[in-house]
Specification:
- By secondary structure, this protein is mainly α.
- It has a single domain, classed as Phosphate transport system protein phou homolog 2, domain 2 (Methane Monooxygenase Hydroxylase, Chain G, domain 1, Up-down Bundle).
- Helix content is about 80%, strand content about 0%.
- The chain has seven helices and no strands.
- Helix 1 runs antiparallel to helix 3 and helix 6 runs antiparallel to helix 7.
- The longest helix is centred in the last third of the chain and has 34 residues.
């Protein structure tokens, strides 16, 4: 998890940054936990993680409302307007990423992990590792207003795409039952989409570097 932005006197938006970083962290924890629950068939943990999506949705709506309220007040500089608009474009992607983590957790509730072949398990485990790393980098990119993180996340996304293709080929090979193969194809797609969101968020975080009211 990225370090929280300190609440300094010259940064009236520190609390907003703090809440956004917390939202990032909740989604990252949900994804990592969902992957572990899926592989270990921990149904109770999976249920808890799936239900946690409610908290993610609530925090997303609260931050969105805070940004809209500040925009409605009309008391901001042009650079601040750019920051707020950029943040409003990022928030839905963070929320949708939380939904993907929830989808994986709900598959874990069905104990799909015990039915996976060793090859599929290994691929899913690696997809979870790559997705979690991508999300951490995207989180840090927002916290630090980094312009260099995007290329790193994009490179990891190439690996994610390769893993998606490999797992899909494994499923087409017919080593699993048809119902399980369908569920596994969905899970592979969830990880692949999660990676896409991380790439988009890292790219947008880079554009906040000059627009941010933090003056980063």
């Amino acid at each position: 998890m990225a370090e929280e932005v300190p609440e300094e006197a010259d940064n009236p938006y520190a609390e907003l940054d703090r809440q956004v970083i917390q939202l990032f962290a909740l989604v990252g924890e949900a994804l990592a936990g969902a992957t572990v629950s899926l592989l270990t068939s921990d149904r109770e943990s999976a249920k808890e993680l799936a239900n946690r999506d409610i908290e993610i949705d609530q925090r997303y709506r609260a931050i969105e409302r805070l940004v809209i309220d500040r925009l409605s007040a009309g008391n901001y500089e042009p650079s601040e307007l750019s920051f707020f608009v950029g943040l409003l474009s990022m928030l839905p992607e963070i929320e949708r990423s939380g939904d993907l983590a929830e989808h994986i957790a709900r598959r874990a509730i069905r104990s799909l992990g015990v039915e996976m072949s060793p090859r599929c398990r290994g691929l899913v485990e690696r997809m979870g590792e790559v997705a979690t790393r991508m999300w951490k980098i995207a989180t840090d990119a927002y916290a630090d207003r980094s312009t260099s993180a995007y290329s790193i996340v994009e490179s990891l996304d190439d690996e994610m795409d390769d893993l998606h293709v490999t797992l899909t080929a494994e499923l087409v090979g017919g080593s699993l039952s048809l119902p399980l193969a369908i569920e596994m194809a969905l899970i592979a797609r969830f990880y692949e989409r999660f990676g896409d969101h991380a790439v988009n968020l890292a790219r947008r975080a880079a554009t906040l570097q000059t627009a941010s009211p933090n003056g980063s």
